[in-house]
Amino acid sequence: MTDASITTQADGGEASFGDYIALLKPRVMSLVVFTALVGLVAAPMPVHPYIAFCAILFIAIGGGASGALNMWYDSDIDAVMKRTRGRPIPSGRVGRDEALALGLALSGFSCVMLALAANVFSGLFLAFTIFFYAVVYTMWLKRWTPQNIVIGGAAGAFPPMIGWAVATGGVSLESVLMFLLVFMWTPPHFWALALFMRSDYDDAGVPMLTVTHGRPATRRHILAYTFLLAAVAFATGLTSIGGPIYMAVALVLNVLFLAGAFRIWRRDEVMAEADNYKVERRFFRLSLIYTFLHFAAILVEALLKPYGLGGW
């Protein structure tokens, strides 16, 4: 543990209920909940509203458990990075042991309850997702390889597949494409952030692509992954969960996203520093709504389908 993290473990005041909620990473959880809901609603098998509500609740709790375990293990580097040093553990408001206990308890509870409420496959899928995020990504990939975001992004991409599994008890092409939509979005989203937050990752020793391969390579990777993401987005629109509304949304968003990635690729550090990374920041802001709007379009198609208005 670094000196910085030891210092911040000093008494930071009594923890509030909000501090324990913050351990669950509610902003990340909101994307987990929404994409899982879309996966459940878009699935071809109807689900009783009460079972659907319980399933989404337990998926949300599982996502929160992952966040608590991540904060427990990463408390040392959180204390070094400017954007994370105010989190409950490095600020000293919540102890590491408390975060670990909360994460483990919520993990077990959410997986067992999802299996009982929906089906065993979805419960096991949720357990695997928590393991992948807390162990494979947080404990292994994040500090070991610049591909941490690429491979580790799978953990955040599993929820729509879990939602689909709640309804169907299995996996299909549509659920895999929803997974890929989030999976391929994750690298350019975080690499754009890393371009204008590099010092944080440098200070914490996290091997982000900007640190290990340089910024020109990161810009090339953003462009390449954005092209792959666009291909996945349009492929999704050609399946049973797509439709004209989805395709229209995908067309507009991907044209904008590709244009932003191309501008990032053309710039060098002199140009970026001159305007305080204006292009990179704009691309990052667009990425914040990119996934939400794609999944919102899938949801609209699914909701309109019973009336003969959604889908192809």
UniProtKB/TrEMBL annotation:
This is Protoheme IX farnesyltransferase. CDD domains: PT_UbiA_Cox10. It is an enzyme of class 2 (transferase). GO terms for cellular component: plasma membrane. NCBIfam families: cyoE_ctaB, PRK04375.1-2. Belongs to the UbiA prenyltransferase family. Protoheme IX farnesyltransferase subfamily. Its main location: membrane. Pfam families: UbiA. Keywords: Cell membrane, Heme biosynthesis, Membrane, Transferase, Transmembrane, Transmembrane helix. The lineage of its organism: Bacteria, Pseudomonadati, Pseudomonadota, Alphaproteobacteria, Rhodobacterales.
